[in-house]
Each structure stands twice: as C-alpha cells, then as structure tokens.
Amino acid sequence: MKRLLMLAATFAAVTSFGQVNMPQPSPTQTIKQNFGLGTVEVNYSRPGVKGRKIFGDVVPFDKVWRTGANGATIINFSDDVIIGGTTVKAGKYGLLSIPGKKDFTIIITKDLTVNQPALYKQENDVVRVTAPVSKLSDPVETLSMQFTNVKNESCELQITWDKLAVSLPIAVDIKDRIKADVEKNLASDKPNYQTAATFYFEWVKDNNKALSLVTKGVEQQKDAFWLYLLKARIEKELGDKVSAKASAEKCIEYATAAKNSDYVRMAQEDIIKKL
Fold it and tell me: Which residues constitute the signal peptide according to the record (predicted)?
C-alpha cells in the first residue's frame, strides 16, 4: 500500500509539472493582408537574435532556410497571384529562402512540411525569386514580416531580422475582371456611378469617361458631397480649374450641411488651395 501511495504521489508530481505553461521561445505569428480581390496570409515563428550572429552562423549562407523557426513557414493566397512572372494559383504554399551575402533566393514551394534543409526538394518549387539584401541601420531583434507598398495590383512581403531586410514582390492582374463587373453594374437598374467613375479615373486613367460617370452620379444625388469631391479631382486632373473649384465649393456646401468636416477639409486642401 505504501509503495502504491508513493507511486501515486510521484505520478501526481510529474503530471503537475507537465501542466506548466511557458511562452514559446520563438512565438508564432499570423499576418493577413487584403490585397487585390483576395487576401494573402503568412504563418511563421519568430526567433530572436539573443546576442547571436544570425546570418552566416545561426542561419548559414547558401543553404535552404525555413524562413522562421519551429515548423514550416506557410503562405496562403485566396486568389491567384503573380510572383517573379509566374502565376501562382490560389492555395497554401511553403515559404523558403536561401540567404546570401548580397541577395536571398526566395522560394514558393508546394511542400508544406519543409522545416529543415534535408527535407527540401527542388522539384516541388513553384517559383524562385532573387531578392537583394538591404542593410538596416537599426537591428531588428525578432524576425519580422509585414506587407508594405500595398497598391491596387502589387504589394511586397518584407522580411527583416538582425541587420538585414529583403522583400518579395507580389502582384495580381485583376483590372479586366473589375472592368467587366463595372460595366455589368452600369447596365443594371441601379448603377453605382461612384465606383465606376473611381475605376475609370484611378485604374484606367480615362478621365473623360470618369467625368461623364460622376456627373450622372451628382445628377441623381444633388447633395452627395463625396461625389462632388471626386468630380473636382477629375476636373482638376483634366486641367479645368474653374469647374474643379465650383465642384469643390459644392462639396464644401453640402458637407458643411451634413457636418462632415473631413470632406470640407479635403475639398479645401486637395482642390481649392492647389488650383
């Protein structure tokens, strides 16, 4: 009986110690960016410098790196993207890299399990991109990834750690898809003139068509101050300063009545002060 009690006490102690929660040495992070008509998401673990020499030591040069710690680093595209001139279909992929002194080779692989160089198989590559290394004046203690330079059809996944930074350019080709949707909407019973005008102004750079569309919008909504601001911007781009000023003043009039100080400020600063 005494022996059984001792075994039970030992088991309880072991169980108790086994339940202690500790922070991850390289905590996991998931970042997600709305981009194009979809999203891009990256899941990776974030090791720290901790006084070590990182590149060329902890992370050897010219060898495959999981671009993180612990498990494989995963990148997920909800829509097709273009990387290095190659179309990458929507889905989950491994994100690997081969660090060098002057540039990194960044690899998108079909294999989601590569967490050490021995598991890497080049035949699973979807695309490889050479990314030049930038030196950082302020070292980054913890491996960090973020989306930068996010535009309508392009963005960059920036990777920074210790004294180095590299960026992976990601692009989409969605203009024709949006144009088809815009034209379909314009043919409907309730066309969205603001969206259509914005598309032709910002994406197609067809300012005359954009002006025609936004004019139809303000004819339907006489007090739509947001449409008058868009109209003023298009007119300003066309070089019609008189019309741009008149539209900006309409925006200020209706925005003031609606107590929307943001549009009053934008009309004054973006249009009237710059004419």
Answer: 1-18
